[in-house]
Amino acid sequence: MAKTRLAVVGVGLIGIRHAELIAAIDEVELAAVADPSEVGPREAARLATRHYADYREMLDRERPDGVIVAAPNQLHLAVGLACVERGIPAIVEKPLADTLEAGAELVLAAEAAGVPLLVGHHRRYNPMVEATREILARGALGRLVAVNAVWAVRKPAPYFDATWRRTTGGGPILINMIHDVDCLRHFCGEIAEVQAYGSSAIRGFEVEDTAVVAIRFASGALGTITLTDAAPSPWGWEAGSADNPNIAASGQNCYRFLGTEAALDFPNLTLWRGAGPEPASWADPLAATPLAWAGHEALPQQIRHFVRVIARAEAPRVDGRDGLATLAATMAIKQAIATGRPVAPAAAPAAGARA
Ligand SMILES: NC(=O)c1ccc[n+]([C@@H]2O[C@H](COP(=O)([O-])OP(=O)(O)OC[C@H]3O[C@@H](n4cnc5c(N)ncnc54)[C@H](O)[C@@H]3O)[C@@H](O)[C@H]2O)c1
């Protein structure tokens, strides 16, 4: 069977990983990469593929079956639209776009053209995520009361050489916290309202280096997220899950779910509950039961899923509207920080609103 030909736009930190995976996965072929910087030709030569400085030229000449958009956030709309206009399915890395308006424009354009659009919230392809969702959905914790999430790392100084990461449209809320927002939406349901504080006191950039968020879910459950890219810690998705070779694994938990009958930590998936039929009271000892799950890296699963979406054999697991809802909740956090007031995520545009 002919291999699915995929191209990558932007071969920086994450684009290189996508390109390497495509080159390594049997059912796909790396058709070309586009990147105007000096890394473009270098990576293309290393991966034995063609290089283009201009992604439009690459799309027109190569006509790939699908594209992974891994350029800076501020370019996602332009590159995504170029794919949609040519009828080429795309995975756009998260955030879907650097503004809500840009994200909505891309989603509506893809819907109008009938072109599959996926958003790179790759954590959803990790089996421990589905295991957790299933544990929560079957009521193993009773009614969900609250959840807390931490993502704390110290990024290396050269990471910030790329201007886009420290200016409007970049920053760790849009680059990193958006993953946790997406996971919490996936686990706990829609976010009704957020309150938040942000700080740039450590790095002094235009964008935040630290933020804390309080969440009210539509279900009535409450949540918090603590984020910083300026403090070393063992707590965060990648450290806990060992799902990213660029971040040292710690095996520590990054989420804690609290229910009326039991508690669950994540990603270790240990269920804490009393031995009796009634929920444990504070004096009752809690038994810790490890729940089994088989982990693997999520990014290759996302690529395999993309192949099936391109063949129209599956619907996108995280489609443009899903990515837009996560972006809306994330932008609500930024707005809450800017205004000092609680903010509800903006509603999605009606289908066909563009026309
Ligand atoms: N899913 C994840 O876990 C994950 C991880 C990291 C980054 N990301 C996202 O991926 C995107 C890229 O992040 P990064 O950290 O790899 O950034 P990066 O700065 O390391 O890489 C971006 C690359 O895009 C290139 N580029 C710039 N303009 C371009 C253009 N016009 N056409 C083609 N390429 C262009 C740059 O030269 C650079 O090589 C961002 O949207 C980021 O939020 C996702």
Keywords:
single chain, 355 residues, alpha/beta, Rossmann fold, Dihydrodipicolinate Reductase, domain 2, 14 strands, 21% strand, binds nicotinamide-adenine-dinucleotide
Describe the structure.
By secondary structure, the chain is α/β, with parallel strands linked by helices. The chain has 2 domains: about 140 residues, NAD(P)-binding Rossmann-like Domain (Rossmann fold, 3-Layer(aba) Sandwich); about 170 residues, Dihydrodipicolinate Reductase, domain 2. The chain is built from 10 helices and 14 strands. It has an 8-stranded mixed beta sheet with strand order 8-9-10-7-11-12-13-14. The protein has a 6-stranded parallel beta sheet with strand order 3-2-1-4-5-6, sandwiched between helices. α4 packs parallel to α5, α6 crosses α7 and α7 crosses α10. The longest helix is centred in the C-terminal third of the chain and has 20 residues. The radius of gyration is 21 Å and the shape is globular. The model has no long low-confidence stretch (mean pLDDT about 95). It binds nicotinamide-adenine-dinucleotide. Nicotinamide-adenine-dinucleotide binds next to α1.
